[in-house]
């Protein structure tokens, strides 16, 4: 992939874990575990090829509608990942940050998140932005509240509110997403990064996330290289 253009920021909607497992006659939770393994592999790969930021959709604000069994399994899986399984990723210089609301995550999950963020804060490779209890609409609401309170306390004036200030007050101050990937064949955003995706290139594949290995990821990078990004110009 030497002469490839590498996107600075990749977004991934990691979808299809449940169907991957169901089609194999296994419980949905097996799909989540396999998906987590795929993410570990992809994080190393993205770091190796020089991607600077990856935002991965791990759990949406809407995913709390699922059964308690599935939600509990996912929360425990997150704890396990952040406390042990991501060790190798961290030793490869990857930094972990999170986007999402704290409420109603448990203290245990929040502690595992804070710990890995702290542990990896000086890493200078790929920034892996894990979107957990994330919703784009809540992010925009929370950003609006932050800016409103800055205005109210006279920290800023009305004229200071611009696109830059909005970006800085989202959950993380990251550059625009260049390439958005959604696995599993669904053609929708499901409340993912509406502001950051304004000029992203979209790549959809029917492959379920657990099977979305490095070679599949490279196909998305190849497709990105065939796009002509005009940003409104000619
Ligand atoms: C994505 O896979 C993982 C999460 C949403 C947590 P799904 O669990 O949505 O898998 P499908 O879409 O039901 O196959
Ligand atoms: C989006 O997938 C959320 C994540 C991948 C974490 P969903 O499976 O929850 O989305 P819908 O319900 O198909 O829109
Ligand atoms: Mg799904």
Domains (count): 1
Structural class assignment = alpha/beta
Helix content: 40-55%
The tally of beta strands, per DSSP, is 6
Q: What's the quaternary structure here? A: single chain
How would you spell out the order of helices and strands? EHHEHHEHEHHEEH
Task: Please sum up the structure shown.
The chain has 234 residues and is of the alpha/beta class. Helix content is 42%, strand content 15%.
Map the helices and strands.
Layout: E1 9-13, H1 17-22, H2 28-48, E2 53-60, H3 68-85, H4 87-91, E3 95-99, H5 107-119, E4 127-134, H6 136-152, H7 163-168, E5 179-182, E6 201-204, H8 214-225
Helix pairs in contact: 2-3, 3-5
One 3-methylbut-3-enyl trihydrogen diphosphate binds at residues 13-15, 57-60, 63, 186, 188, 190.
Question: Describe it for me?
Answer:
The structure is a single chain. With 234 residues, the chain is of the alpha/beta class. It has one domain (9-135, 176-225): Decaprenyl diphosphate synthase-like (Undecaprenyl pyrophosphate synthetase, 3-Layer(aba) Sandwich). 42% of the residues lie in helices and 15% in strands. The chain has 8 helices and 6 strands. It has helices at 17-22, 28-48, 68-85, 87-91, 107-119, 136-152, 163-168, 214-225; strands spanning 9-13, 53-60, 95-99, 127-134, 179-182, 201-204. A 6-stranded parallel beta sheet has the order 3-4-2-1-5-6, sandwiched between helices. Helix 3 (68-85) packs parallel to helix 5. The longest helix has 21 residues, at 28-48. The structure holds 3-methylbut-3-enyl trihydrogen diphosphate (2 copies) and magnesium ion.
């Amino acid at each position: 992939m030497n002469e490839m253009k590498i996107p600075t920021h990749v977004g991934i909607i990691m979808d299809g874990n449940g169907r991957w497992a169901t089609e194999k006659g296994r419980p949905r939770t097996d799909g989540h575990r396999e998906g987590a393994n795929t993410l570990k592999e992809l994080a190393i790969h993205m770091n190796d090829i020089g991607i600077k930021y990856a935002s991965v959709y791990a759990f949406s604000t809407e995913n709390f509608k699922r059964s308690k069994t599935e939600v509990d399994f996912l929360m425990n899986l997150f704890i396990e990942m952040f406390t042990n399984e991501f060790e190798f990723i961290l030793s490869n210089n990857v930094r972990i940050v999170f986007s999402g609301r704290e409420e109603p995550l448990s203290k245990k999950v929040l502690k595992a998140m804070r710990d890995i963020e702290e542990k990896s804060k000086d890493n200078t490779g790929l920034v892996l932005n894990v979107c957990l209890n994330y919703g784009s609409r809540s992010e925009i609401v929370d950003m609006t509240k932050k800016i409103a309170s800055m205005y109210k306390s006279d920290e800023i004036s009305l004229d200071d509110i611009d696109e830059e200030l909005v970006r800085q007050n989202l959950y993380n101050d990251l550059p625009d997403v260049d390439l958005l990937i959604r696995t599993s064949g669904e053609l929708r955003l499901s409340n993912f990064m509406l502001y950051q995706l304004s000029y992203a290139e979209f790549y959809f594949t029917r492959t379920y996330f657990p099977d979305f290995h490095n070679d599949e990821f490279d196909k998305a990078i190849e497709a990105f290289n065939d796009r002509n990004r005009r940003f409104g110009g000619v």
